[in-house]
Amino acid sequence: MRDVAVLSYAQTPYVRTERVRNEVEMLMPIIDEVVKKAGIPRQEIGFTCSGSTDYLAGQSFSFVMAVDAVGAWPPIMESHVEMDGAWALYEAWIKIQCGEVDSALIFSFGRSSMGETAETMTLQTDPYTMAPLGPDSISMAALQARCGLDAGLFSERDMAEVAARNRRNALTNPEAQLAGEFDVEALLAAPYRVSPLRDHDCPPITDGAAAMVIAAADVARDVSDKPVWIRGIDHRLDCHQLGSRDLTKSPSTRLAGEHAGVSSGKIDIAELHAPFSHQEIILKNALGLDDDVRINPSGGALAANPIMSAGLARIGEASRQISGGAASRAVAHATSGPCLQQNLVCVLEG
Amino acid sequence: MSEEREPVTQIITPVRVAYTYTPGIASERFLRGCKEGKLLGGVCDACGRVYIPSRGACPRCAAPTSKFKELSDQGTIITFCIVRVPAANIDVELPYCTANILLDGADLSFTGLIQGCSFEEVRIGMRVQAVWKPESEWDYSVGNIEHFHPLDEPDIPFKDLKGYS
Amino acid sequence: MAEHAAVIGIGQTDFDAKRVDVSQVGLIREAAERALADAELDWKDIDAVVIGKAPDMFEGVMMPELFLAEALGGVGKPMLRVHTAGSVGGSTAIVAASLVQSGVHERVLTVAYEKQSESNAMWALSIKMPFTPTMVAGAGGFFAPLIRGYMERSGAPEDTGIRVALKDRLNALKNPVAHLKLPDVTFEMIQNSPMLWDPIRYLETCPSSDGACALVIGNEKHGRAASRPAAWIHATNMKTEPTMFAGRDQVMPKAGLECSEELYKKAGITDPRKEIDCAEIYVPFSWFEPMWMENLHFAPINEGWKMTYEGATALDGDLPVNMSGGVLSTNAIGASGMVRFAEAAMQVRGQAGDHQIDGARKALGHAYGGGSQYFSMWIVADQPLQ
After folding, report:
1. Which of A13, A157, B94, B155 has a 20 to 30 Å separation from A263 between CA atoms?
2. Whether the complex's predicted ipTM surpasses the cut of 0.85
């Protein structure tokens, strides 16, 4: 296996609604930034891969317009996944492993504000047996939270504490959308949005984009004195039918974590893509993280949930923690699908 | 006694999702121009080429088109086709002729409707002029131009159009 | 490339306008099971799954890899979903191959599909976007002017497209899974069919099909151990250019010219016309055959039409093209690119039955998408690349 490093990461400031710029205008500055910071001339970047979904953009082939922001001239080797940017990163990492290219640009984007996000996510469910019932993403997460509460795995207080901690952490993140000091008692006194989830247990609606440059070791060492190494990266999938699995566990996260080598060293920080508060607890358990691991210094998905970038952002934020000297070994995670169905785990080291 | 019925092979599950679109900075500038009867091309910050309508970037350079330039509403046909089947998003009586038109001053063509001559007369290199709807009907849309009709000017030779098709 | 990869199993569904006999799941599994059977493998032998299809709005399911997890034996495995517009079937195969070439996985299942009858592809392709009313009448309205541009540049005879359509439609009669079969097709029938977007006639256009294609790709160990001959992947390449920019040649896109040039170099091919025995290329409108002959460096610029005219691309020509009947006979959009890659592999494995080119040892699979801006290609052969 070739050693691959994260050279640079950039993201748009995360906002509730991006009304002024279109996706291309959002992407241009961060792609520019991330390429410059990486120190590799744009024309020499071997591969480009993006993550996005038509259902956020409200049109077919919506990823095509994003190519305008990349500078695909002369023509480039480029691909796209209709998934979170974390999986675009995976495809790019594989491409580098093949030896065909030595560096890659990854980006992702989405304007959740344009549609009715929770309802749109219903369309991810089985079109014959689930979607016609109309289960939106918040209701499905609520089912999962209920399972965990009933099993005694966590309490509503535990969930509120997760929410409060993430939003407090977000105070140090200039791009975070929701940041602040929240009193747990006050949070618990609030009414349910969809029982047993309250507003604070749910992610915000976020518009945003993220971009990253990675490179193989020989290139990385040439251009950077602080490459952040991807020591392991893997992703797995659980079954789709909610009734066919134990929603309080995340076997695909555990499996991906094993394959990515989470336990082969001490973890300082973990960036976990948990759009719902109870999911952070489930993920922490699945990855076998100790209580001394600092979770989501960025504020996580509860502070900003730019769908299609939130996973890539966890990897980016973890890489920043390492390059900034706050951690030497980190785990970053990305999720997709209802109730943590699909999970990607990445281990980073400085 | 059992009833013989056809097996169910399909179910229809209507889906409705509502989206609020915003055009973006460059598109907004272009659309405001349309409202005033002006065709504004976006100029690439890096290479100076002119795009109409601009979506915000010059794709060659991945640079913004921050400045705008007013273009003529006359242009040249780069290529064309005669459409004889309905398209869901177009409300024009069949058959009709659409053409890729390079407006004077632009570096990229866009598609417009050609009327005012027979299909046999439409040709690559033909000079055309925009025909606008009445000003009272103008909106924030390039649809303010109803169609393009032939201009009484000599054709542009094909060899001079090569870079635009 | 780090590791050799080979196609060890191929499966295609029976393509048709409406496969009402199966759900989306049934359709995909039909292809996947055929591929597994061809590879003499079972679901548990697969390490990872890659799926590809065109826009989700075609079937109304967002990110379908999620609901297909159980159906494709994906539980506990990595599953990726690729989407690169019309070239997606090809890019999906390339991503699947790279999972093996990287050394990360040993055997990968990849499926590309489209069940257009379950949604409204016409609608999905022409959603009325505010702020951008367009006069481009769908794919036909976009490509017809480009074809006219090619005719102007090359001076190709007006009936070149008809000849391509006739050849592909006759070839389809020899392909058991092809969708559109016209046993009585003649030159006149095509010539007299209604003109849709001048110069494209009805019978020079692809149908809309339901269908899926699946491949099992294995590493060298599994390629050599396979009981049926493997199709060794010599080279893959993908290239993209933006849809519209000043100075773009949309008729002869540079992305395509460069993609094929690099592909041949990677595969050690110096004279593609001579060294490649046959090709499956993405021709949704007849005139794309001569245009792609040039884009693929099989013919000099403006002379691609001569290959059609001279019969070079016929089954008994020196470079048969679209032996399967091509996209003109079957177009399940998401699947079509992979079908091209699969048919190329079938040729070098000697499994193409009635449309087999005798002695085919090296073949090209090609797909394109978007506004002729996405290209994905591969070269497969009966032996690994030396």
Report:
1. A157
2. yes
